[in-house]
């Protein structure tokens, strides 16, 4: 372990035991949600469904002891009810991620129940990081096991359950050093588009042209959308164009591809558009309308891809 790593890892470990929260549930434990949960998971235990059994034993409907987390999920917008704490329980994961361990996989989750949850219970929870492992290498890659402990309380602040959630935050094993040729997934190559990929290998970006009516088209296809002719040849693109639109791909992360990967919809000066990677520009500096020029990215697996470099200054 380098001295540099031990510094930020100490920072990560200093967050162990810090309590985050409280965060409140949007809704009280309720029978409609219990019924839907049982239906979705194929649970037909009358204790949860007919009401009478639970009334006799507990004086109220009870929820299956698997729903603990279901009661305190954030809404679709990721928001919790007013009064909930807004501190960030994931800062340790973000810290690890900033040091190059961008991938994550859930390892296991254990729940413990101290009593049945009853209709009308209004839950809240706190969380803390219970442990951060030393750096480990697994078949997936190298990184850190992080265990989060969530504690659940009822409306009287009595603890009703807890959950341990373990993650592996890692750098994928297959990630290659940047100096090597990158590897990219192979495209589907057919008789209709082979000329396009062969052209790239010869460092030419070819645009398909209908030999009946002259219409240019991309991506390559068997028939002309203008006149339906099946006859075509191609012309070589100048390589000049502009960014018509773009997106930034964050997930899934791919070995050898920047974590924030800008991809452009390039309008070539010949008039057709093409989806291609953008190079030489930070993801947050890409601008629609920027002029771009073509470059070729030679990949390790006998594949050459067109990529575009912004020339600076939006049109
Ligand atoms: Zn045509």
What does this structure look like?
- By secondary structure, this protein is α+β, with helices and mostly antiparallel strands.
- The protein has 2 domains: 3-172, Roll (Thiol Ester Dehydrase, Chain A); 194-199 and 237-310, OB fold (Dihydrolipoamide Acetyltransferase, E2P) (Beta Barrel).
- The strands form 3 sheets. Strands 1, 2, 3, 4, 5 and 6 form a 6-stranded antiparallel β-sheet that branches. A 5-stranded mixed beta barrel has the order 10-11-12-14-13. Strands 8-7-9 form a 3-stranded antiparallel β-sheet, covered by helices on one side.
- The two termini are 48 Å apart.
- The longest helix is centred in the first third of the chain and has 11 residues, at 3-13.
- The protein contains 6 helices and 14 strands.
- It has helices at residues 3-13, 31-41, 46-49, 52-58, 91-98, 194-201; strands spanning 19-24, 103-113, 124-132, 136-137, 141-153, 159-172, 206-210, 216-217, 232-236, 240-249, 261-268, 273-278, 290-299, 303-314.
- 20% of the residues are buried.
- The structure holds zinc ion.
- Zinc ion (ZN) binds at residues 210, 212-213, 215, 224, 226-227, 229.
Topology of helices and strands:
Layout: H1 3-13, E1 19-24, H2 31-41, H3 46-49, H4 52-58, H5 91-98, E2 103-113, E3 124-132, E4 136-137, E5 141-153, E6 159-172, H6 194-201, E7 206-210, E8 216-217, E9 232-236, E10 240-249, E11 261-268, E12 273-278, E13 290-299, E14 303-314
Parallel strand pairs: 12-14
Antiparallel strand pairs: 1-3, 2-6, 3-5, 4-5, 5-6, 7-8, 7-9, 10-11, 10-13, 11-12, 13-14
This protein binds zinc ion (ZN).
Residues 210, 212-213, 215, 224, 226-227, 229 line the site of zinc ion.
